[in-house]
Amino acid sequence: VGSSAGRRGGRWLALAATALLAVAPLLGCASAERAGPSALPDPGSAVGCALEKALLSGSSEALVDLGLPAGEVARWMTVRRGPDGVEGTEDDAWVDVDSAREVLGEARLARLAAEVGRSDRWRCDAVSLQLLAFNDFHGALEPPSGSGAIVRTAAGPVEAGGVAWLATRVRELREAHPGPTLVVAAGDLIGATPVLSALFHDEPTIEALDLVGLDISSVGNHEFDAGRDELLRKQRGGCHPTEGCADARGFAGARFQYLAAGVVDEATGEELLPPWTVRRFGRVRVGFIGMTLAGTPAVVKAESIVGLRFEDEATTANRHAAELRARGVDAVVVLIHEGGRHEGGFDACVDPAGAIVRIAGRMSADIDVVVSGHTHQAYVCELSGKLVTSAASNGRLVTAIELALDEAGGGLQGRRATNHVVSREGEPDPRLVELLARWRALAGPVVGRVVGAIAADITRRPTAAGETPLGSLVADAQLWAAREAVGASGARPDLALMNPGGVRADLIVESSDFGEPPGAITYAEAFAVQPFRNDLVVVSLTGAQLLELLEQQFGYVRNTPDRPRVLHVSANVRYTWRADAPAGERVLAETVTVDGAPLARDRVYRVVVNSFLAGGGDRFSALADAPAESTGMLDVDAFVRYLEAHPDLDPPAPGRIHRR
Ligand SMILES: [Zn+2]
After folding, report:
1. Which tens digit of pLDDT belongs to each residue from 356-389?
2. Measured in angstroms, how far is the CA atom of residue 22 from the centroid of ligand 1?
3. What tens digit of pLDDT does each residue of 327-366 get?
4. Which of 150, 239, 278, 304 is deepest in the core (most CB within 10 A)?
5. Pairing outcome for strands 378-383 and 331-337
6. CA of 655 to the centre of ligand 1 (A)
7. Cα of 374 to ligand 1 centre, how many Å?
8. Ligand 1 centre from 375 Cα, in Å?
9. b/e per residue, 400-433, with b = 16+ CB within 10 A?
């Protein structure tokens, strides 16, 4: 099958898709060696280039207009699209003028060449492709508030974001650009979302991003929050398996394509979703590889990713980029949900650091552009010969990346990028305004309900020891709720621990959109604090294991003494730590008390945590193997019940954790 003889036999259409893939790299050589007179123009000539452009990118209608019979055009389109009937996917045949000759015949091709040569429309030219990129959208349908809305510009802080404004800015940038535009993203579009999206399993966000015009996104760690089946349902559609659909409209799934290179189903050895896609613009093609961070298992609860393997980012990207180059793409863009940080403004790159710097350094020269994410930072960097961008989070920024491509075979000629603020100026996109109104009407009865009240703002502002008022409140709520759930019959939980990253918004006195009185807390506000829908579980740890767990706040790869990850503790726990002590001794063991009694190393303590921590999340490996029992309660439900049972809450006083 791999020989040119097979192709001369006119059996192109009979070849299986896999065989087409196998011969793809050989075709270039085969056509170069082909001898004999041809009625077709030289591929390097202007007419030859125009002919190829028409064949490879012309629509069915355009090819019929050029005089090809409709039946022949349909046959050609079948070859171009591959077995799945969609262009730009992995099963597409490698097509060129030679393969067209096999399908259409030389005489027809010669007439087509004459026809395209008469028109300017098919002339090979420079293509200016615009990519509009964002990342870590996190279901920010409503304009985000607080620090999640701020972009620090040279003129001062600006409030930005809101999906209807994102759509407006995308439309403006699209209209202002003379060439084609593609909208791409780098993951965490869903998961850890506000209640309007989370209440409906993030279906509202998928629908909204389709309306924004999103074409392609990598998965991020949060795409796995609800497990692989839910991720696949987001892509393919269908109602939620237990809760059904929100209304009679049903859920169609994303029109945009999720990519998941390096996310391998261990049962089959296959990637869970396509690793890449190729998009054609005239005669040039651009390959997009999408991936999440290899460290995803450390930041997603273990039960959500059972049976999945997450492979090294650079190795995976390089392997797929080589495949794409072998198919002759003109540029390769990697959408990766991993990032870095820097010291400059949102459109700059000053002293870049972090994982993406190391990953870019290991990426091959096949890769031109890297759209990154995960760190919620904003930058436009040049790293190891690649343009590397990121656009903060919550739809506050959109990156406009311009790629200058040459249709006549010159490939990528230039590239540049600018981060634009998604300002709330002009008209929000009316299609998004309507979509949000529809979802809001469905959510209103649930989320506008007042569930409690606070006497003063309860925030995530940490003390020097890493304690925060809201974190303390969440830990107290979890211990109280777990004790309620266990009741008098079961073994009483002793204490609660909460990961700081899971406390996502402050509780503020000011009224929200629902117009409740100042101090009143709506379900929506409580949900914003605890949006992950984790189960509450009770793990059994000895005092010695508990000490080891506390020590892991300061070590173990990511939790370092400079940036400790101090767990929030319930009110009955006290301890002191010091940063300058040697590793393994930072928590002063003799200071740890539970209910006023010194920690007993041999005693088993029943510790309330969420299922993310219980699975060893945030690299707290001491928890991963501990015996765990579910309380059957979601963390958000525990928090809401606590607020209901404790009206007029004051911020918890500091002093649980001390630093020396
Ligand atoms: Zn992330």
Report:
1. 999 999 999 999 999 999 999 999 999 999 999 9
2. 36
3. 889 999 999 999 999 999 999 999 999 999 999 999 999 9
4. 304
5. unpaired
6. 32
7. 4
8. 7
9. bbebbbbbbeeebeebebebbbbbbeeebbeebe
